[in-house]
Amino acid sequence: PKVTVPQVVNINVNDALALLKRAGLNGAVSRTTVAGVPADIVLRANPGVGSVVDQGSTVTLLVSQAPVIG
Asked: pTM for this one?
């Protein structure tokens, strides 16, 4: 069956992964540092929010990480 990628952008990564699981999707996390963005916030999903995909597909979340100080 097909499912729609839920709204997972601009929320905590743990909440996003739970939403994906509830929708029947797998979540993968890729991290990047973005100035001014708190850690563990989802910046982007691939496939994007609202995309219709096969149940069981993997959605990769681009997630902010805490900047390295020093």
From this structure: 0.93
